[in-house]
Every structure is written in C-alpha cells, then in structure tokens.
Amino acid sequence: MRIDVITIFPQYLEPLSLSLVGKAIGRGEVELHIHDLRDYTHDRHRTVDDTPFGGGPGMVMKAQPWGEAIDEILGSVQTPGAGSPVLVVPTPSGVPFDQKTAASFAESQWLIIACGRYEGIDSRVFEYYGQQIDVLEVSIGDYVLAGGEAAALVIAEATIRLIPGVLGNVESAVDDSFAPDREGGALEGPVFTKPQSWRGLEVPDVLLSGDHGAIAKWRADESIRRTSQRRPDLSSS
Ligand code: ADE
After folding, report:
1. Which ligand 1 atom sits nearest the alpha carbon of residue 143?
2. pLDDT tens, 147-159?
3. pLDDT over 80 (residue 169)
4. Which among 68, 175, 176, 221 is annotated as catalytic?
C-alpha cells in the first residue's frame, strides 16, 4: 500500500516511523511519502491560507497549493498496482471513521491524506478531485483537534495494522474490539497475565480451568456486558 500525507507540519508524522507501522514500512509493505504543503506555494511567505468568503473568524486553506500538491502526487506515482487513490480528508465535519472504514482503506492500494488546519480547506478542492477519484471526509470523533495531523496518525495506524501480514498471528486482529466476526459484543472484555495473584487480586478461575468452551463463553459474556455498560449505542440487547 502507498500512503501520501500532505501537511504543513511534516514532522508531526514522524511517529509513523516507529513500531508496527515503521516495521511495515521497513519491510516494504507500506510506502509512505510525506509532503510539505508549503513547497507548493509561490510567495515569499509561503502562504497557505486566506480569509473566508462570507466573513467570519479564522482562515481557510487556499485551493491553489492543495491543487498543485495533489496534481503532482497523482502524476508522479509509479508504484505498481497502486491503482486509483482515495483522497482522505480528516475533519470534524466528516463521516465517522470506524473499523469498517479502516478495513476498506486497508483494501485500497493507495491513500492520499490531506491534513487541513485552521477552518479547513477550500471546498472546491474536494469537489474538483471528486470528479476523478474517491474523496472521503472523515472524523475520528466528536471533538475538535487543532488540525488533521493527529487524525492522520490514527487513520494510518488503524488501516495499516489491518493489511494482511502486518500483524503477526500472535497479535492477529480477529479478536479486536469492533472486529466484524467477534464472538460476543463489540468491545473486548478484560484480559489478565501472570502472576495469578497480584496485590491480593486473583485472575478469574475460569481462565485457569483449561476448559476452552467455558473460557470462550466467559469472554463472550464479559464482552456483551462491557459493551452494554460502556457503549449502549453498540449493544444489540
Ligand atoms: N480535525 C480536527 N478535528 C478532527 C476530528 N475530530 N477528526 C478528524 N479530523 C479532525
């Protein structure tokens, strides 16, 4: 998979060189390119924003540098099999980004993530590229971040860990909270490791029983209980 990220803060994306995502990049399973939006400006101040039409507070990102950056990326790609990209735009006014969205991104061969700042990006950018490629404005939650970069980290990590082969068998994604084929509820229940007794607290007996059927049932029940307590909106009962 190829991921291009466009931002005015390229260093913000440096954590992607660490851990699971960094290793996937190192193995060549993911090709990551970070682009500085200001490289596509032509004035002395490298201006990327301007006042909003219609008035109001804040600034809006200009279409021109976005257009030049995206055009260059679309024109430069020689990644075999990259196909047509999805232009992903993190914004609090997007559709919710969830595990299903992550799974669909993991199937696509190429994402371009456009990190906006200020009051957002001139809407004509999405209208224009929507005529040639898929454009999806997504929100990672009902709160407002200072920009799309932190959301891009979230989207990239949630997506990359679902690419076949990125997670080893041991850390497989089938038991994840929200996984489509989970037994029980949407959320994973509590987990325990050694020692069996810690500060007077014991591991539930059933987990020591060796009875795989009973363990699976206990986990499913805990998962349903946790889901109805913490996320009644996801609960089927
Ligand atoms: N940019 C600012 N807030 C955001 C959010 N909640 N989700 C995605 N992108 C954002």
Report:
1. 6
2. 999 999 999 999 9
3. no
4. 176
pLDDT digits (tens, 9 = 90+) for 110-123: 999 999 988 999 99
Residue 226 phi/psi, 5° resolution?
-65, -40
Prediction pTM value: 0.95
- Counting DSSP H helices and E strands in the chain, the numbers are 6, 9
**What are 172-199's pLDDT values in tens digits?**
888 899 998 888 899 999 999 999 999 9
Quick one: tokens of 41?
Answer: 């400006």
Going from the Cα of 167 to the center of ligand 1, the distance in angstroms, rounded, reads 27
Residue 110 C-alpha to ligand 1 middle, in angstroms? 21
Q: Which residues contact 32 (CB under 8 A, 6 or more apart)?
A: 2, 3, 5, 16, 25, 156
Is position 176 annotated as part of the catalytic site? yes
Catalytic residue list contains 161: yes
Q: Mind listing the domains of the chain with CATH numbers?
A: 2-160 (3.40.1280.10), 177-235 (1.10.1270.20)
What residues are in contact with ligand 1 under a 6 Å CB criterion? 90-92, 139-141, 143-145, 148, 151
